[in-house]
Amino acid sequence: MKIRISTIILAMALLTGCNKEQIPTGLLLHDELNTTDTTYMITNIPSAQTKKIFVEEATGVRCPNCPTGADLLRNLEAINPNKIISASIYSPFLNYFQPPAQYDFNNSDDSTLVFFLNNGDPSKPEATIDRLETGGTPKYFFDKTLWSSTIAGILSKSTPLNIDLSATPTGNTDEFLIKSKITFTDTFTAELGISIYLIEDHVVDYQDSMAIAVLNYEHNHILRKIITPISGSSFLSTITTKEKGRVFEKFTTFTLPTMAVLGTSPRGIVNKSNLKLICFVHKTGSSKEVIHVEEIDL
After folding, report:
1. Which terminus has fewer CB within 10 Å in the chain: N or C?
2. Is the pLDDT confidence value at 62 over 50?
3. pTM of the model
4. What is the rounded average pLDDT of the residues 137-142?
5. Cis bond before residue 138 (omega within 30° of 0)
């Protein structure tokens, strides 16, 4: 009897261990950088900003259909000026480095991000749209046939908060002080987080386009670094109701990553003058919905 009970207990322990949710390697749940947070109330509340939509496009240099996705997104941005901000996620699927490509767009943040959002690489081209749920599988990545209708359905939404973003050189080489200022122009109750992305535009390199090698393709919105934790930096978590007039400021000291050469694979920033910062505020509970997003040149 003792042997049987011990066996059952061991089996239950093993089963519990197998069912335990695993945190992907590299997924940061707290800020590693030097940050300072502060909050206060104001009475002279600014006008609400126009809500912008955040798109995270899963793409790859070895993806023949991905240029059509990039074209569609560029057209949507053109017909909805100042309403859509995007980042290109060059995760490993269909994105292996091989000459004649000059640069390797893979990085660990892209890989960790798709596991956080999708438990692995999605099909390409697909994209998150304000991290709304698709209603199916995958949970957050929409097929490009649904991008136009999904964006059209949320263009008229408003946002209860303003984002003011700035970055100031500290005097140290490639180091910046990033200030993220969140001002609530209406009452809001959900748990929130801030995420900050570093992206690069105008990188000319190889792209497979409908099985034709394009050597001078312009890659834009390349995700270079997620400055905050992958899941975002939670803020005002002790304040259930964020009142109209509540201000939260986050100061983050950040140093630009350098270009690394791994074997014959150059990886990292190509031209510092083409860098931008994206800051977005999103829910952190069972929903990951993006509330608002802003972008600045670095």
Report:
1. N
2. yes
3. 0.87
4. 94
5. yes
- The model's pLDDT over 209-230, given as tens digits with 9 standing for 90+, comes to 987 899 999 999 999 999 999 9
| pLDDT at res. 257 | 87
DSSP 13-59: HHHHHHHSPPPPTT---S--SEEEEEEEE-SSPPPPPPP-EEEEEE-
**What domains can be seen in the chain, in order of their start residue?**
23-297 (2.60.40.10)
Cis peptide before 46 (omega within 30 of 0): no
Kindly report the backbone phi and psi dihedral angles of residue 6, in degrees, each rounded to the nearest multiple of 5, phi listed first: -60, -40
Nearest to 186 by CA among 44, 289, 48, 70: 48
Range in 32-41, 212-221, 253-262 the model is least confident about: 32-41
In angstroms, the Cα distances linking 221 to 58, 92, 224, 253 are 11, 17, 9, 22
pLDDT given at position 18: 32
Please provide the distance, in angstroms rounded to a whole number, between the alpha carbons at the two ends of the chain: 69
CA distances from 41 to 44, 152, 249, 258 (A): 9, 35, 11, 39
Q: What is the token pair recorded at 220?
A: 């834009």
Contacts 24+ apart (CB under 8 A), 234-237: 234/191, 234/192, 234/193, 234/284, 235/37, 235/182, 235/192, 235/193, 235/194, 236/39, 236/192, 237/191
* Strand-strand pairing, 233-235 and 192-200: antiparallel
